[in-house]
Amino acid sequence: MNDAFPPDAAGTAPPAPGGLATASSPASSGDAEAGHVTPSMAQFIEIKAANPDYILFYRMGDFYELFFDDAVKASRALGIVLTKRGKHLGQDIPMCGVPVSRADEYLQKLIALGFRVAVCEQLEDPAEARKRGAKAVVRRDVVRLVTPGTITEENLLDEGRANHLLAVARIRGSSEEDARFGLAWADISTGAFRLAETDRNRLAADLARIDPTEILVADRLYEDDDLKPVWRLQRAAVTPVSAALFDGATAADRLGAYFGVATVDGFGSFSRAETIAAAAIVAYVEKTQLGRRARLDVPAAEGSASVMLIDAATRANLELTRTLSGDRRGSLIAAIDRTVTGAGQRLLVERLSSPSTVVAEIERRLDSVAWLADDTLLAAELRAALQSAPDMVRPLGRLALERGSPRDLGAIAAGLAAVAAIATRLDAAALLPDEMAEARDALAQAPHDLAALLASALADELPLSKRDGGFVRAGYSAALDESRELSADSRRLIARLEAEYQAETGIRSLKIRHNNVLGFFVDTTAVHAEKLMAPPLSARFIHRQTLANAVRFTTVELSDLEARIASAGERALGLELEVFDLLAAKTVEEGEAIRRAAEALAVLDVSQGFAHLAGTDGYARPTVGDGLDFRIVGGRHPVVEQALRREGGDAFVANDCELGPTTRDGDGRLVILTGPNMGGKSTWLRQNALIAILAQAGGFVPAAEARIGVVDRLFSRVGAADDLARGRSTFMVEMVETAAILNQAGRRSLVILDEIGRGTATFDGLSIAWAAIEHLNAANRCRALFATHYHELTALAERLPRIVNATVRVREWKGDVVFLHEIVPGAADRSYGIQVARLAGLPASVIERARLVLRQLEEHDRKRPGLTLIDDLPLFSALKPKAAEPTPEPKPIARPAEPALPPGAAEALADLAALAPDDLSPREALEALYRLKSKLRKG
């Protein structure tokens, strides 16, 4: 067969070294080079043309082959060998391949790199294609489109992170600022489906909160210049799609059709933008799943005012779920996560990413934690039971998509067993708090009949794939047991029939044998053959073949047994697949009850995790209300505290924070924090923000006492970073983030700012910091922490009543500085920068020179009584009267005396000045150098 691909009837070509598929022989020149397209090539091109934006995994036997540009891209991305396979239109065809058995491993790498993959399977046995003719190709088609937001495989998903597919729809207003954005996000691995509406100012923050893995936007929205910066900043894959998916005229009908309802009004009140985004989600899911209906919950609208708004920069600065380097280790979630299930970990991430602003909801969560913190025995039993509970919602999602495995059924069975045990334990507890009582009720409604069915039907050891068989428990199906017996015990059955024939005929040498031509047959010698050919045995033994030394017979029983043995393996697998389909269908039917039970387990897991943390790390229950309180007593940074404990260092120094209003109806305070580097200023700033997040997430906090009025928006500008790709320096990034804070922070916000203005000249930076504080005080009127090295700013506390000063305590000892890490009222009088520089290892000469310069600057400042640097600034000169007497000119800073020149140097320098280097040959230049050195030595 002259084809650029391996012959389909043969299955696949033999693998090349390294496990890659290769051609058995390249296509000859001739028709292919002349422009002829072979049947296999035509099939590939047709399927690829229908999926141009996807890497095509083209199934050929035991391999997924990739060709042309797909092969080039994949070989580079996966680090696999790129080969070539025949010719097409006169050009070599690039090719690489991956074994089907390892396809998930390669899919994971491609998806992580942002590729989308179309999986094209063989839809018939190659033997069937062979019956249609020598040149017939195996029927193939794409059975699935794999994208970052639509994966469901267990080994491709992060157990502790939701896999959100998000769509953004825009409804234009009279101006860009008036535009409304609808957000819809779904996790098809769990069925979660939510909606929200936002505006341009909140869009980036909401995207950071949801943290999707893939974002769908209409082509024209993707190309919008105003939104391009938003798309560029996303960690997720941003997928531009046809505007038809965002058609507002048909959105409600498409959404209703997906859920099988005439109208979506029964789902709740959705805005037009939310409905369009939701319709885009279901359309994309239908497209990628190719007719298989993913199990999605009815969409639920999420009010924008119900969660704390945290913008992307603040999330990065506070390292809530990952560090600045992208690692989980070192983040807040890593420090406080005591959950023991994947579903519990995902719920914890969700609550930390979207802390509630609804006091009643926060209190419900805290009541559950408090209950378990008090009842340590129940908490320990609950924790142990949860450890045996596998994830149920993701296996349920795979089963709904007909992508499940026996292990998914096993996970449901084990999960339901844990549900029953936990429900029984909670039934015995009295006066459960509301959240735990609701969880108990959901567990009680779990399908326990299904649990019994799965336990009776499934074997103890389950294979990864249903095609492997062996997952149905012995004794569940009599027909299956018989087929298994035939398949596994064929030798014993043949031996038993052979013994029966020997006893009946009296011929001890009679044997039942097998070859590829006759199959099973009765074999005996020519001497004994006459006995079998004579009545009455001749009625049973049918002659088949006579050889020189043997005669062969068959019987009806032997032929029947042979047929049953031959088909036993296939029949056993077929019966097991029927059982699997039945169990999967019953499981999907009970999907809603299973999902509710799984969600209840996740809630209980988060609650016990916080209770466990409270007991081991000394966390306390916060008091959260609707006021503007913010009082932390003995607060600690959860991540730093654990790092110190892990490294065996000093105990963490706890500190208080008071940002509440000074009067009942007043606004919160603004604290200006001064003190040395390494004193703990940034740690204190961050820990208070993290305590607010933990409290509103419904967890206990690392403090002796905490009273917090709900924070609706949290802003943090801590640390230095640049954005060179967008032409932004460190200072520019600082100013952009500060501008966002000053433009958006409100009275109920919490603002944390560190070293604003330090990235530019002293006077510029001080002026910016001064003006920013005044704006926070007068316009934003929010609770704020402002750390700075501009000690001049502490003067604002004397002029503005909401502003107070705090500083980091230090102690000097024999010329060294000891950092006490204590935050106390007052202002620092110096920064101890030179001491910190010495600790960092700057050369001793640099340290001594710095000390000399500092002493002279301080002496100059002392000779100007009544004046400070701030009084020299035009911006602030009106705040104090000018000095009556002119101040003396400062003396120049003394410099070390220049070292004396060695004898003979003056003469050598004169000769050197007289030289004309351009007129010298190399030899003359070398001789001149020797003369100069000689004069210096003589001197």
UniProtKB/TrEMBL annotation:
ATP binds at G675, P676, N677, M678, G679, G680, K681, S682. Signal peptide: none annotated. PROSITE patterns: DNA_MISMATCH_REPAIR_2 (PS00486). It comes from the Bacteria. SMART domains: MUTSac, MUTSd. Residues 749-765 form the DNA mismatch repair proteins mutS family domain. GO terms for biological process: mismatch repair. GO terms for molecular function: ATP binding; ATP-dependent DNA damage sensor activity; damaged DNA binding; mismatched DNA binding. GO terms for cellular component: cytosol. Residues 1-34, 882-902 are annotated as: Disordered. Keywords: ATP-binding, DNA damage, DNA repair, DNA-binding, Nucleotide-binding. This protein is involved in the repair of mismatches in DNA. It is possible that it carries out the mismatch recognition step. This protein has a weak ATPase activity. PANTHER family: DNA MISMATCH REPAIR PROTEIN MSH1, MITOCHONDRIAL, DNA MISMATCH REPAIR PROTEIN MUTS FAMILY MEMBER. Belongs to the DNA mismatch repair MutS family. This is DNA mismatch repair protein MutS. It comes from Prosthecodimorpha hirschii.
